[in-house]
Amino acid sequence: MEVVAKQAFRMFLGVYADVTNWDDQMQSCSLILKDNPLSDFVVLPPLLRNELWYSNVLTGIIRGALEMINLKVRATFQRDTLRGDPEIEIRVELLEVMTDRYEDDDE
Predict the structure, then answer these.
(1) Ranges 7-16, 28-37, 46-55, 92-101: which has the least confidence
(2) Could you identify which of 3, 48, 72, 85 might form a hypothetical disulfide with 79, taking C-beta atoms 3.0 to 4.6 angstroms apart as the criterion?
């Protein structure tokens, strides 16, 4: 998660994320972003403020990137500056460490 937070976010979005709030089993944590360039010029209409997570594409990117290294995760938004929160929080939970499967493997 440190690599995702410190290197991937910086490389692709130009921002840093902090990794905090690890659970006891070290299976889930929060990524805290102070800034989100995807939402710089966005204002959510009041009617959609409680339903729409504008930058939800970030959770899909995190899931896809970690799945490429055989980690199945759930990534969800907890807080967002577009909703009036002071920072952006994305909760990431490890669901499964997958193994490579090959066509010739006997089961």
Answers:
(1) 46-55
(2) 85
Render pLDDT for 19-70 as a digit per residue (tens, 0 to 9): 999 999 999 999 999 888 878 787 777 887 777 777 888 899 999 999 998 9
CATH number at residue 27: 3.30.1380.20
Specify if 52 maps to a domain. Answer: yes
Helix, strand, or coil here: 12?
Answer: helix
Instruction: Give pTM, 2 decimals.
Output: 0.83
Cα angle value 49/53/54 (rounded, 5°) = 95
Give the H or E element holding residue 94.
strand 88-97
> Does residue 104 lie in a domain region?
no
Residue 14 DSSP class: S
